[in-house]
Sequence to fold (240 residues):
Amino acid sequence: MLNSMRKRMFRTLGGTWTRFWMRFAGLGFAGRIATRAAAWTAPPHKSRQGLARMNPKGYISVKAVIHHSDIRFGSHIFVDDRVVFFQRKTGGPLTIGDRVCIYRDAILETGDGGSLSIGSDSSIHPRCQINAYVSYVQIGKGVMIAPSCAFYPYDHGFLPEQPIRKQPLHSKGGIIIEDEAWLGYGTIVLGGVRIGKGAAIGAGSVVTRDIPDGAIAVGNPARVVKMRAELVRDRKNTSV
Fold:
């Protein structure tokens, strides 16, 4: 009984401490100190999402790396430990919408004129790599991207006259992920691809062509195997 009371007391005190410091959290020097102090009593990883709701500036871990001169954050965003925002030479803007969650070890880059935007309420899970080089990556609203996904809207040249590493990058076009799509673990998306609204991509798929709205696609290369609307009909037929 006594131990239970102590635990409740410590949780209450920890919550009060966290809420106090999150009032001052931000990207400036003082804001970073406040963020560190707020996180001191907070549980790790996804449990810290609640901190983002305590301040319109959101929660951006002091362990996140921001090396980008043209980055725009929405309100109440969550940026976990070891997330990297990186801008290479001539990299375009990186725009993060309201209430976006980006989890640990994700790397988001722009370079060679490429740009990246993520719509509100979307989530980028651990170890994702989004390299918006040469062209753009547009991620819509409410999109769920599972861990270890990768986005590459560009290719290297392969001509035999010179080493591949010295050849210029080129692109078949940007990547567009429409609202409310879901990408399973380890999905790779290549240039010139549109994944439609509400589409679902199976784990480990390689998306090299457009996927229509509401489709379920799997494989390498990813192919449509069913439409989500068919699941409703299948369920009705099963229940009869």
Remarks:
- The chain has a mean pLDDT of 91.
- The chain has two domains: 1-58, 63-239.
- The first strand starts at residue 59 and ends at 60.
- The two ends are 53 Å apart (CA to CA).
